[in-house]
Target: Hydroxyacid dehydrogenase
Amino acid sequence: MSLFTDLQHLLGEHYVQSSQQVVERLTDRHRRYKGNVVAAVRPANTSEVAAVVRLCGQYAIPIVVQGGNTGLMGAATPDESGRSVLLLLDRLDRIRAIDTHNDTMTVEAGCILQNVQNTAQQAGRLFPLSLASEGSCTIGGNLGTNAGGNAVLRFGNARELTLGLEVVTAEGEVWEGLSGLRKDNTGYDLRNLYIGSEGTLGIITAATLKLYPLPNAQCTAFVAFDRLSQAVNFLSFTREAFDASLTAFELMSGPCLSLLASKLPDASQPFKTIEHAWYALIEISGHQSEADLKSLFEKVLFNALTEQSVADVLIAQSGAQREALWHLRESLSEAQARDGANAKHDISVPISRVVEFVERTDALLQQRFPGVRHFTFGHLGDGNLHYNVASPKGQSSEDFLANYAQVSAVVHDTAHALGGSISAEHGIGQRKRELMSRYKSAVELDLMQRIKHALDPHGLLNPGKVLPAKEAL
Model:
């Protein structure tokens, strides 16, 4: 008997595949990493996931879990050794329960995020996690990386949107922690330990998520600024003016808007010309009438315009116009891809240090790599910037990316020096794994290693991800 044969007996031949049958699953979204596996399996439920884990444990075979394969750090890509089993959770896609009195929804890890949003809406509720990849990413992956997205400012990351979990442990046991409680002070918070662990501590198979009442109205605007400091000041101003109604504050630079106009000419631009240095897409939502919310929105923006704290404003006048503005924001990655590969970074700093970070990092990179192009955008409301650096005009992307490590060191060192993080919402995976020893203290890394060993003593859950190799410590 072999592991492959035993897996077929366990799940059925149709749900156990070879590497050749799942080639598209053996590389990451950007095709930076490629792997190989003993088998790829598609269990139907939590019991089958647990049985797979127990069987792999008997063979001492590592397990890599994959959802929608939309991650950016290679966390869901197996290594090239061909020793691991790829665990695909797409069959765990049931909505188990909706409780509108408790405002919760229990869903399986393979549920597509957009399907969860739509199901909540059909029940008259809002599940606010929103990402550009929501049509293909899964809840399990969202929780594994503690996904952020466009509404973190108001609702928080995936961790804040989750009340309970169901998890298969490294021993193949099942922790049934699908509590819908908002208050439960009985011991250690295992939920928060597993969320963001990228499949290295346990396999999330289901979650109980928070729901919210659907807003009665939304107002959206595109705002222009001559200086980044004006955008930061305007964020504080809108927080005071709109309070909890402020849902999103998405920043993008003038070069980002120009890139969109160049690479996606069919996309509707908010202004006739791109003449300002910075722009923001802001949105408020609430339970008052549409007329009252719109009146408040227009009053605040008009005052800001007349006081010259903003350079220009476009307020969406229809649902279609709102969708067009959001389409611009969500198309930035595609526009960059059409321009060519670039050095991407997902950093966070305190909002009060955003201006300093951008000005300092821009200057350092121009000194060391004259002519590089900066495409900076992100979630200003929570200090998360996607700070991307492209090759100078006339230089190929391939030649420029030979300097990727040096460019990233400038970006990450500056963020770290300003009290920031080298990963805000994309996780660590394998791409940033060895950077952990540079930016995390020895005490932090030791604690993480001890937790990993306690929960996965044989190191079979997603090896080679998140934590640096011990010899690097």
About this structure: The radius of gyration is 23 Å.
